[in-house]
């Protein structure tokens, strides 16, 4: 790129910021590079204005021919950059103009996973409305639901469950959303997952259930919540298969009975995983 082209390209970036389509077209004809890197992150002009939430500039750049799927050093496209910085209107415009909703950055995160990591409920609602893949996984095998459970983002967990997220998905360590919530001490998230039907006996690759993960981390409130839920589940089974004993004990089981029933459920889950 010669000096004049460089100057034109820098002027192009300024025109892009101002959403001046006519000026951008003039500068392109004069030799400006529409895809030139403008900072240390290797952002293109489109990535830059998308990350700043300048929706009119986004539209003008795309009309001028900017690449909607260009990536920077982090693998972020204009769409993922807009999601990362929380600009819903820019995200809507990019999707409307054909940006790939499932594009991944260098960590394998889609727009939904990125929005989940930020706990951005409004962004997540918009992406669900746009019918993104709700069970997409990143390079570590995390779905949005597992990530939300790990961070304790209850409103996000509720949105994802309502949208049909897979409650039994697990990451590369075999950790489900329920185990993630238990391990990190998020009782409210754990109870929401259990109420939604998450498998309380799921085991990770270390063979630990949510109960055992909570005990390991000394999250007493989570331990109590899981034990109470197990009592309810086992009590229901007793009522179904052994009415006499259920009537006698009123659904209250001893600790060794809890342990035996959980071991039985875990063994079933391990056979499924293997």
Short précis:
The protein has helices at residues 3-17, 21-29, 45-51, 55-63, 78-84, 88-96, 111-117, 121-129, 144-151, 154-162, 177-183, 187-195, 210-216, 220-241, 243-249, 255-273. It is mostly helical.
Molecular structure report:
This protein has 274 residues and is mostly helical. It has helices spanning 3-17, 21-29, 45-51, 55-63, 78-84, 88-96, 111-117, 121-129, 144-151, 154-162, 177-183, 187-195, 210-216, 220-241, 243-249, 255-273. The chain has two domains: 1-106, Alpha Horseshoe (Serine Threonine Protein Phosphatase 5, Tetratricopeptide repeat), CATH 1.25.40.20; 141-274, Ankyrin repeat-containing domain (Serine Threonine Protein Phosphatase 5, Tetratricopeptide repeat). The chain has 16 helices and no strands.
Descriptive labels:
Serine Threonine Protein Phosphatase 5, Tetratricopeptide repeat, disordered N terminus, 2 domains
Write the layout of secondary structure elements.
Elements: H1 3-17, H2 21-29, H3 45-51, H4 55-63, H5 78-84, H6 88-96, H7 111-117, H8 121-129, H9 144-151, H10 154-162, H11 177-183, H12 187-195, H13 210-216, H14 220-241, H15 243-249, H16 255-273
Helix pairs in contact: 1-2, 3-4, 3-5, 4-6, 5-6, 5-7, 7-8, 7-9, 8-10, 9-10, 9-11, 10-12, 11-12, 11-13, 12-14, 13-14, 14-15
């Amino acid at each position: 790129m010669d000096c004049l082209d460089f100057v034109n390209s820098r002027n192009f970036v300024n025109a892009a910021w101002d959403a001046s389509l006519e000026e951008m077209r003039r500068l392109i004809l004069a030799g400006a590079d529409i895809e030139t890197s403008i900072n240390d992150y290797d952002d293109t002009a489109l990535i830059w204005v998308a990350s700043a939430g300048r929706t009119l500039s986004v539209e003008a750049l795309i009309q001028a021919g900017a690449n909607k799927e260009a990536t920077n050093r982090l693998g972020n496209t204009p769409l993922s950059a807009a999601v990362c910085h929380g600009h819903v209107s820019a995200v809507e415009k990019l999707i409307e103009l054909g940006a790939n909703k499932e594009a991944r950055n260098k960590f394998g995160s889609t727009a939904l996973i990125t929005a989940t990591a930020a706990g951005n409920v409004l962004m997540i609602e918009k992406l669900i409305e746009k019918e993104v893949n709700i069970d997409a996984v990143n390079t570590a095998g995390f779905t949005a639901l597992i990530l939300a459970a790990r961070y304790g983002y209850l409103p996000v967990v509720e949105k994802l469950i309502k949208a049909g997220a897979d409650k039994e998905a697990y990451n590369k360590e075999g950790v489900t959303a329920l185990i993630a919530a238990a391990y990190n001490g998020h009782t409210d998230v754990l109870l929401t997952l259990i109420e939604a039907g998450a498998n309380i006996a799921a085991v990770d690759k270390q063979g630990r259930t949510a109960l055992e993960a909570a005990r390991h981390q000394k999250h007493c409130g989570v331990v109590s919540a899981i034990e109470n839920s197990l009592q309810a589940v086992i009590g229901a089974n007793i009522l179904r298969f052994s009415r006499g004993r259920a009537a006698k004990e009123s659904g209250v089981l001893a600790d060794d009975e809890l342990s035996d029933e959980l071991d039985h459920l875990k063994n079933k889950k391990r056979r499924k995983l293997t």
